[in-house]
Amino acid sequence: MIPASFDYVRAEAPDHAVQLLREHGDDAKLLAGGHSLLPLMKLRLATPSVLIDVGRLHDLSYVRDDGGDHVAVGALTRHHDLEHSDLLGSDVPLLRHAAGQVGDPQVRHRGTIGGSIAHGDPASDLPAVLIALRATLVAQGPSGTREIGVDDFFAGFLETALEADELLTEIRVPKMSGAGWSFQKFNRRAQDWAIVGVACVRNGNTGIGLVNMGSTPLRGSGVEDALGSGASIEDAAAVADLGTDPPSDLNASPEYRRHLARVLVRRALEQAEG
Known about the structure:
Layout: E1 7-10, H1 14-24, E2 28-31, H2 37-42, E3 50-53, E4 63-65, E5 70-74, H3 79-83, H4 86-91, H5 93-99, H6 105-110, H7 113-119, H8 125-133, E6 136-141, E7 144-149, E8 154-156, E9 159-160, E10 167-174, E11 180-186, E12 196-203, E13 205-211, E14 218-219, H9 221-228, H10 233-237, H11 254-273
Helix pairs in contact: 5-8
């Protein structure tokens, strides 16, 4: 398929990208790695009249310790760089590991964490990881920057809390401080989207993020609440699908996805505790 015709402009800085978004309005889309947007354009499911290329805003590609209790990750940091970050390896190993499970090497060399998060696909791995970690997203708009908690970020299918004239610039990920963790992903082939995935962090409190179990990336609230009330791993995993609405497609039925969620959550909790 060939995308509909569009104009192309390259942003020279984050402020310039915001200016271009404001100038072109809802007809514009941001282009980073392109792995999420371009397939939609080829299928004519997205038909922007203007593409604003932010892929060369190198100031938004970093992984750094700004002090305090979190690691700051630039939105244009590529999955490959996350996968090989020593800082994430020591402070947020769950994110480093999960980044290495995204797609294949070609995807990881071009795809960015910001593009993955801003796309808001419920079948994507990294949104669930950020939910488990209780990350904070930073957006830049005409009036400056604002912080958005990850639980308030995913608004609907492929919809986020970002305004039409805002650019996701940074992800602030709490340090894990030796917490147990696990990332479980069930798929047909290594490079495929997850049929179901689970991100888990255990450090006193438990964080659970679910992949492909609803129209948005989801928190496994049923599991977290059960463990907070003193339930065993087995009993908590048994309610892993509580409050979910898994899709039906060629890969799996909703019932099968519910079963997978219960199995993968149990495995994740056991590994994180171990």
